Amino acid sequence: MTTVFQPHELLVVFDVDNVIIPGQTQKCFLGKLLRAGDVSLFSFSVVCSWFLLYKAGITVNTQRIRRYAYRQLAGKRSANLRQLCADLFQSELRPKIFPAAMKKIASYRDRGATVILMSSSLREIVERIQEYIGVETCIATNLEVRNGSYTGEIQGGVPYGEGKVHKLQEFIAENGPYRKIIAYCDHDSDLPLLEYVHEPIIVNPNKRMRRLAEERRWRVEQHT
Q1: Is the separation of the CB atoms in 201 and 219 below 8 Å?
Q2: How many domains does the chain have?
Q3: Which long-range contacts (CB under 8 A, 24 or more apart) does 96-101 make?
Q4: How far apart are CA 139 and CA 13, in angstroms?
Q5: 2 within domain boundaries
Q6: Please, which pLDDT band fits residue 60 given cuts at 50, 70 and 90?
Q7: pLDDT of residue 52
Q8: Across-strand partners of 183?
Q9: Who contacts 43 (Cβ-Cβ below 8 Å, separation ≥6)?
Q10: How many CB atoms lie within 10 A of CB 155?
Q11: In what order do the strands lie in the sheet with 114-122?
């Protein structure tokens, strides 16, 4: 028998990178900027070095590298960047979406659960994924815009680490409460969120995250 959820009964949070789409969406975005001539090869190399350290599980100052990366966008027209993100989604991200993730999200949505995406990637990227998948909303990184152009500054904090818990609490305060919360995540930086929700589910984990999941007896899934 199919379970149908009542309003406010279940909230399901999906991370994006390696849960819905393989790899880092922001790295794809940076490559698109480089090809469009909107960032220098030097800036591209600096940020890509951080991605390599992140993937290797080496702790780095994420706030510092994010500030550096987003300041490269200062003065760029927001309308132009939104179009670039739309093109990026259609050409590079949409073809990579895991069918398993699409099927799971559709199952939750069709049975009445509230489904949201949460990612530290830019809202301009995550919204394209949200719209295509057909979920309620997304929580992502917002950049400040003045007079139609980016200032290069982050607005409202980044949903990363403890920041994901804070952003989720804000969402629940405005839309909840919910009897149960499930989160699908892939990386050990998501531990604060995974420890906060009722049911953590680990997707496509690296070795360290898989070990942590086994120690805590959390469910592990492979999305392909």
Answers
A1: yes
A2: 1
A3: 96/21, 96/22, 96/23, 97/20, 97/21, 97/129, 97/132, 97/133, 98/19, 98/20, 98/21, 98/22, 98/223, 98/224, 99/224, 100/221, 100/222, 100/223, 100/224, 101/14, 101/19, 101/20, 101/203, 101/223
A4: 10
A5: no
A6: low
A7: 72
A8: 13, 200
A9: 68, 69, 72
A10: 11
A11: 149-155, 137-146, 114-122, 10-14, 180-185, 199-203, 219-221
Say if 3 falls within a structural domain: no
Retrieve residue 176's tokens: 């909840």
- pLDDT band at residue 155, thresholds of 50, 70 and 90? very high
Report the C-alpha gap between 57 and 30 in whole angstroms: 21
196-205: per-residue pLDDT in tens? 999 999 999 9
Q: What is the pLDDT of residues 24-44, one digit of tens each?
A: 898 888 888 888 888 777 777
- Position 4 in a domain: no
CATH number at residue 123: 3.40.50.1000
pLDDT in the model for residue 2: 67
Task: Write 42-45 long-range contacts (CB < 8 A, 24+).
Answer: 43/68, 43/69, 43/72
